[in-house]
Structure formats: C-alpha cells, structure tokens
Amino acid sequence: MITTSNPSQPTEQNHEIIFPQGEFWSDEPPLETYLHLTQIILLLKSLEWLWQDREDYFAAGNLTIYYSPKQKKSEFFRGPDFFVVLGTPRNPNRKSWVVWEEEGKYPNVIIEVLSDSTAETDRVEKKQIYQDIFRTPDYFWFDPYTLEFQGFTLISGNYQPIEFNDQGWLWSEQLQLYLGIYEDKLRYFTAEGELVPSPEEAASQAENRLIQERQQKEYEQRQKELALQKIEQLQEKLRELGVNPEE
Questions:
Q1: What pLDDT, in 10s, does the model give residues 191-225?
Q2: Exposure string (b/e) for 18-38, b if CB count within 10 Å is 16 or more?
C-alpha cells in the first residue's frame, strides 16, 4: 500500500517587536534636520578642541537636564540643544545631567538651535525657565535657516539682551568667547577675533602649515643653489679673462 503524507505547513514567523530592557538615558526627541545636527556637533567639537587641556567643564548636546526639587526624573526636565557647565569634572560618560547629583549645578551657557516646532518655546517658555529656575548666566538662540541670532545675559535676576559688536558677534562672559555667524554657521571667536576651528579645520591648517614650511625650505634651497651657480659662472668668466678669482 502506498501511503501519502500531507506537506508540512509553513511555520508562522513571530513578528513581535522585542523592546530593549534597561534604563533610558536621555529623553530628548530626535533632531529635526541635518543642519541642526551639524550645528550642535560643530559647537561641541570646536569647544572641545579649544579646551582640550581643560578638565573642569562639561559640554553636551541634546541631553536631558533633570531638575526636580523632589529628585524625580518623572517631572521637571528640559533638554537644551547645547549647554556648558563650568567648574565640574569633564566626565563624558554622563547619561544625562541630574542637577541633584551634580552639587546643584545648572548650565552656565545654553544655546538653542531654533526650528519651526520649537522656536516659540525657546523664545518664551524655555527662556523663562533658564532665567528663573536654572539661573543660567548666558543664553543664546540661533536659527540655521533664517540665521536669526540673539543672546541674553543674566543681570540682577533678569535676562538682558547682549549687544552686538562691530562684527555682529555676541560676547559670552562665561565662555570668554564671542559667538557669531560664519559661513551660515554659529561659531566661536576668541577675544582677539580669531575663529575657533573645528578639529578637522585645525588638522587641515596644521597640514597646510607643514606644506608651506616645506615649500619655503625648498624655495630657500633652490635660491641658494641658483646663487652658487651664478658665482661659479662669474668665476668661470673671470678665468676666461685670465683673472684668478681665488687671488
């Protein structure tokens, strides 16, 4: 007798999404555009390059700040696009900035990168929080599309607009640097007016200096060789005229 078997039924695949377990670090939403991302990275990396020998500050971008008086992470938190805290260990392993775990320190400088969905909040609600609760001395905002740029410094408990200098830059007393627009990006400038480079720009500048130094040495060597050739040619002519150039 011939027996037949039913073909095996396809096994159903389990498409259930398995979420990772563990602590969620920063509660900040994704950045809106690539311009916002590159602007924050530029501010962070340029300052790290300038202060590469310092260990007394912490700078971060798009990181949550928890400041609940009840020491709860479920209430009272904000996520500036970029902030700097001075007088604190540089420790880059922080998952967020928890004020009650950081000796009560709030940011010394905050920069918000404006977008269509956050601009009004940055100009009004966050500005009020940074003034009245954070007591952050220097607050700036910048729009990477319209290039709107403004800055405030805390005077007698209230934010007062920082005046632009002749170059259109704003001075940050906390950073001891100017902030200004250069090639449509918000950049740092030293008190002497020099652009603070990014690490990539600094490396490129160093390479260009090496190339220029090498070219200068090659030029000087070539000029020396030409001078020696002219001396030899002159001595040869003198010999042809019966004059010993060595006498």
A1: 999 999 999 999 887 666 665 666 776 677 777 77
A2: eeeeeeeebebeebeeebbbe
